[in-house]
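Team,

Forwarding the record for the chain on the shared tracking sheet. I've put the sequence and predicted structure together so nobody has to dig through attachments.
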Amino acid sequence: METATLMLENLVKTFGRKKDVQAVNGLNLEIHQGEFVTLLGPSGCGKTTTLRMIAGFESPTSGRILLEGKEINEIPPNKRPMAMVFQNYALFPHMSVFENIAYGLKVKKQPQDQIHEKVEIVLQLMNLVGLGDRMPHQLSGGQQQRVALARALVMQPKVLLFDEPLSNLDAKLRVQMRAEIRRLQQRLGITTVYVTHDQAEAMSLADRIAVMHDGQIEQIGSPVEIYEQPASLFVADFIGKANFIESMVEDSSDDHISLELFGNSLTIPTGNHTYAVNDRVYLIIRPESVHLSHKEGAFSGEIKQAVYLGSTVEYEVEICGQVISVIIYDPQEGDKFEEGSRVSVEFSANSFHTLPRK
């Protein structure tokens, strides 16, 4: 399947009679050929508006959309070599599975034998063999989603667009479908833009994640980069869970800084930021990187809350007046701690990430 490079240059979209509602604000993004990029963010951040501009359903207020180096701003949706999978599947209820998948090919007036051949190929690809004569209401949610994806793929688009396609499925089926989508995308090597507010979806699907906030990209990077090296407090707080501990730089060198942590000195790698003595910072550490034990250590705390979830136990621990979150995986293998008990809290210096505190 032919794929393409997609570029968004200074993309702006405003709404309202006075153009005073700015949904997308100077967005720049390059999506490489065959890459899977997820636009991730909360409701109202501009991710769906961005996707709709790529598809041609919305016109940019300013900026350019380039496909293979050519501007496509003025090209209508049905003329763009793209296909979109919608949140609500958008299947024709009066058409069979076969007819739904074949619809776009018929509109393009392709020969009947070619239509039949192409539909049969995607039916096999999407594990829908034997369901061609069924009506949409006779299918499960997962099967309907496969039909919607098959209808997009049969058009052999250069770019595949997804608008929160799994939000109507139950949790277990969502996990299965995102695995199928990723397997299919890698097999076909098709350039893909996927919109979601679900962090687990973004982390499991994407080559790169663009975290959006207030109409702009706050950070773009691989799932590992986004999680382990968040570029802002918003990203650190939005992606997963994190503890934010206020501190101050006591000493600084080229590759390490020393800070105060709950009355003790902590030396950690400098990371991506340069700090001077007395700079105020946030120490950020993920709950799964904090360890608890009954042994005596430098940091002592009290268990304020313990929530057992089977595969994990989540604790709230108070240290020097601040409550931090701790997640223990595979609790059957380690100690369990009761609410109100005293514990030793251990931090690995390499698990901390710092951001400037303004």
